[in-house]
Design brief:
Helices cover 17% and strands 33% of the residues. The two termini are 35 Å apart.
Length: 444
């Protein structure tokens, strides 16, 4: 199999660093790679707040990039993971999107130059990236009482300017004279001038008044059940006092030693750790043993956890049956034919460079498979298969060379990996080529 990325030109002074742990930040990256030479840019890649496990460093000189690759490739940084350091490739050009047919009604824009100057507000430009709202407030508060002050950001990106709003015009004039051309960093004077007034927003049309529901229309809510009135579970445990860094994987690992688990999870509200979790055993004896062993145990110094039997979940109230409709029921439609299940094409040719890895434990991640299989050769791609958040127990590794795939199959087939149950090795075989997608007929 060939990848379009293989045909992209190599950047001589920019390196790609893969296999990074999720705790490795941009500051760590700069500290680790600055010893090889001066660089233009260095960053760890994120998608939103999710760490993507790789980074880029753009050096000013290609010799610095060569030194970094030579010394850092295959080195262990943290959490026992070896990193992959190589020359980065140029990004492929994005195909221009076709223009949309619908025409948007453009609102008339106000030119900022046409807006009147404010007498008590200042625009402050030329700010360095390390200069934040607190610095701006400290530097300008000495000239008078402030109404508002902020440094402008777009998401997490510092935009290099800010605004200061004084309560009195005299304070703004004093600050303008004193701070114009002032250097907040050596050799970098800031630009201070009167800000422009904000354009007035057009008045929104008042929404139509909502019709109030009558008492008959309002649904009666079922009475709330007091958790203290619920019976205590004999196989479920409540675990309180958990530290914010303690995850569901940690909880499963600590409690599975006492018996087989039906379920276990740390509770979150959105992304916020709530400090407690639940463990459900298949056996009452295992739950009792876990409670005795783990109650008051310290996961962090001087912070013991609280383990006790959980309460049963309240039964959901049955929904009242809907009254039969007055009209005749429409004729039943013929049932739709079920979609054929996706099956592996046994006649598809075997891939020379891609291997299938089956029998993986639920705790085994994409980072683990990359670490275990990258030692046999350069990878094009590697991943553990998930459906939503559910681990499917298998993954794929795609090598650049066929000999790397052969070596991996020979060495890893029948081997136990991190998290494997004793006597349950993984299966490593040649993967089959993906079938070509059928072209959809053009719409008339």
């Amino acid at each position: 199999m060939t990848d379009a990325k293989d045909d992209l030109p190599v950047l001589e002074s920019t390196i790609f660093i893969g296999g990074l742990p999720s705790t490795f930040t941009t500051d760590d990256l700069k500290e680790t790679f600055q010893k090889f030479g001066a660089f233009n840019d260095a960053f760890v890649s994120y998608r939103g707040s999710r760490h993507r496990g790789f980074a880029f460093v753009e050096y000013k000189d290609k010799s610095a990039a060569e030194k970094a690759i030579k010394e850092m490739h295959g080195k262990t940084l943290a959490e026992g993971k070896d990193i992959n350091v190589q020359l980065a490739k140029q990004r492929p050009e994005k195909k221009p999107k076709p223009p949309k047919t619908k025409k948007k009604v453009e609102k008339p824009k106000t030119d900022p130059k046409d807006l009147p100057l404010s007498k008590a507000s200042l625009f402050v430009g030329g700010l360095p990236k390390t200069y934040v709202t607190e610095n701006l407030k400290t530097d300008f508060a000495k000239y008078g009482e402030l109404e508002d002050v902020f440094v402008s950001f777009r998401g997490k990106r510092h935009r290099g300017f800010g605004f200061v709003f004084f309560k009195e015009e005299k304070s703004a004039q004093d600050a303008l004279k004193a701070m114009g051309g002032h250097e907040v960093e050596a050799g970098k004077p800031i630009n201070v001038q009167l800000a422009r007034e904000k354009p007035e927003k057009p008045a929104k049309a008042e929404p139509a008044p909502k019709k109030k529901k009558t008492k008959a229309e309002k649904k009666e809510k079922p009475p709330k059940v007091d958790p203290k009135d619920l019976p205590i579970s004999t196989t479920g445990l409540f675990i309180g006092g958990l530290p914010k860094t303690y995850t569901t994987e940690d909880l499963t690992k600590d409690f599975k030693t006492y018996g087989d688990l039906a379920d276990s999870f740390v509770s979150y509200r959105g992304k916020r750790h709530r400090g407690f979790g639940f463990v459900y055993f298949k056996d009452e004896k295992a739950a009792t043993a876990a409670m005795k062993a783990m109650d008051k145990k310290e996961l962090e110094k001087d912070k013991p956890i609280n383990v006790q039997f959980a309460r049963e979940k309240p039964a959901k109230p049955e929904k009242p049956a809907k009254p039969a409709p007055a009209k005749k029921a429409p004729a039943k439609k013929a049932p739709k034919e079920p979609k054929p299940k996706r099956v592996v094409d046994e006649n598809a040719p075997l891939s020379d460079t891609m291997v299938f890895v089956g029998g993986l434990p639920k705790t085994y991640t994409t980072e683990d498979i990359t670490k275990d299989f990258s030692k046999y050769g350069d990878l094009v791609d590697s991943f553990v298969s998930l459906r939503g958040k559910r681990h499917r127990g298998f993954g794929f590794v795609n090598y650049k060379e066929a000999k790397s795939a052969t070596a991996a199959i020979k060495d890893m087939n029948g081997k136990e990996v991190a998290g494997s149950t004793a006597g349950k090795p993984i299966s490593v075989t040649q993967a089959r080529e993906k079938p070509a997608k059928e072209e959809k007929p053009a719409k008339e």
